[in-house]
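BUG: 3D viewer hangs when loading the predicted structure for this chain

Environment: internal workstation, default settings.
Expected: structure renders.
Actual: progress bar stalls at 90%.

Input used:
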Amino acid sequence: MIKLVVLDVDGTLTDGKLYIDNMGNEMKAFDVKDGLAISQSIKQGIKFAIITGKTSKIVERRGKELGIQEIVQGSWNKIEDLEKILKKYEITFDETAYIGDDLIDLKPMKLCGFSACPKDSVNEIIEISDFVSTKNGGCGAVREILEFILKKENLWENIINNFSATEQ
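Structure tokens produced before the viewer hung:
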């Protein structure tokens, strides 16, 4: 059973492009469908963590909006950071899903019980992934992966019922 989903940001939750204006302001685009799937998964009892190599106020804000419990930025040792989170929540690698797209995600993805990636990930990530989305990073890939996990865990129907139930 998946108890924790770990997300990379650039190339996974976003398209991987860094938008910087003349004033040095950074912008990122997030897919709202990814966000809905994350927030609904949290309501089903799945914990979430972001572990990313970059540091950005945008990521902190988006993560908090969605209710993501752990946000680790500036990480260059994702295994060490993941181990701290697993210890804190008493979760094993086998109970963890990892969604990443580039070489920095390779080692932690190999350790986790389930690994997935967007279709535009680097080949080394695609080769070791249990599930490869039909969508690119930042374009609903996380949503597709979470739907797969939730259906496998028999939780997807709960989410559908929450949105389709009518008051009497």
